[in-house]
Design a protein that fits this description.
Helix content is about 60%, strand content about 10%. It is α+β, with helices and mostly antiparallel strands.
Length: about 375
């Protein structure tokens, strides 16, 4: 078995909180280091420590490995505690301007599941959604609190920009939409289905369980670089999908998720993501119909590319092209007239005319 495949198998078994076996005790420090490299790359190191503690598998680790994992877990817990206070401060300041924001992704996990311990979730920033008409007021609040715009995104982007403040552990990613394909999950719908929450006298809203699952699927598979088209496994997002499904259970309207993504011809992206969560982290298959052969084959492709980084790199240009010309994007841009082939030819011609051949090639080759 390839070393990366072996490390993935060990990691998946640990995160499923399966009992240790004799093979675990025989693992060398080098083998564990390969697992730790993977958890660091995919922001799952605290989750690994929590799972090992929950399953009683810590004794299978070398002593220095246990110390390493425990230290990272504690440090992440402290960082998340500061991030939580940072979020509460900002939410309170927005409330003073009559803005009730929505927390997204990791920021929401600090307050509202799906993890038993918020220290499990690693995050780079806090994602905050505000109504589009309140964006400028929200920016003024951020500036009053000492935040400065670190990166402003292009016009039409789902978020305005990234704001940071000296000595804070995380920046603020200010959203007016949840994801790049906003036509699939519009913020206007998410606001209507969201539930009010209160913490330490401040008010925010939490997207519904169904929308949190939809957001996870779109963010992991379609958003930005389009990991589904490139055949990439983002283990943290797959792990979080399994955690959301278990935490919210019957609150998730899987028929709605299936119908909405199917209407945008994203059924394969949904099923392959769910199948990855099923195979790696034991998620019980939640859809009414069984997993398709296409989803199984896509997961196999992802596994092979995960094993072979060189092959993964070779798949990038084709994946970028498929993502840029995906049916849901072309339909949203061009409507019914012309059909898929006409949409794609027109789009490529317009892009080449506007950006030139150099930018087009750069777009195909981009890795991040």
């Amino acid at each position: 078995m390839n070393r990366r495949r072996r490390s993935l198998a060990i990691l998946a078994r640990c995160l499923r909180e399966s009992p240790a076996d004799s093979a675990d005790a025989a693992l060398s420090a080098t083998a564990w280091m390969k697992v730790f490299e993977m958890t660091n790359d995919h922001l799952l190191t605290p989750a690994l420590w929590h799972a090992l503690c929950s399953s009683g598998n810590v004794p299978s680790l070398p002593a220095d490995a246990s110390e390493y994992l425990a230290t990272l877990y504690l440090l992440n817990g402290k960082r998340n505690g500061v991030l939580r206070q940072q979020a509460i401060e900002l939410i309170g300041a927005l409330n003073e301007r009559a803005i009730v924001p929505a927390l997204l992704k990791g920021g929401l996990a600090l307050f509202d599941g799906p993890y038993a311990d918020p220290a499990i979730r690693m995050m780079r920033d806090l994602d905050l959604l505000v109504p589009a008409q309140s964006r400028d007021q929200a920016i003024a609040v951020l500036e009053r609190l000492g935040y400065r715009l670190r990166q402003q995104y292009a016009a039409g982007h789902h978020a305005f920009g990234d704001f940071s403040r000296p000595n804070d552990p995380g920046s603020i990613d200010l959203h007016t939409e949840l994801v790049d394909p906003s036509h699939v999950l519009p913020a206007s719908e998410v606001w209507r289905r969201a539930a009010p929450r209160e913490v330490d006298g401040t008010r925010y809203v939490a997207p519904s369980a169904t929308d949190r699952v939809m957001h996870n699927v779109l963010h992991a598979q379609i958003h930005y670089l389009g990991s589904f088209y490139r055949g990439e496994l983002h283990l943290q997002q797959i792990y979080e999908l399994a955690a959301l499904a278990r935490y919210f259970g019957p609150e998730i309207d899987w028929s709605f998720v299936e119908q909405r993504l199917g209407a945008h011809r994203l059924t394969s992206a949904l099923e392959s993501h769910l199948f990855a969560a099923h195979r790696l982290f034991g998620l019980v298959w939640p859809l009414a119909r069984p997993v398709t052969a296409g989803a199984r084959l896509h997961f196999l492709r992802c596994e092979v590319q995960f094993d072979l980084p060189a092959l993964q790199r070779l798949a990038i240009p084709w994946g970028n092209l498929r993502g840029a010309l995906a049916w849901h994007r072309m339909h949203a841009l061009h409507g019914e007239a012309g059909g898929p082939l006409g949409w794609r030819c027109r789009h490529l011609f317009q892009y080449l005319r506007k950006k030139g051949i150099g930018a087009t090639v750069g777009r195909l080759m981009r890795t991040q």
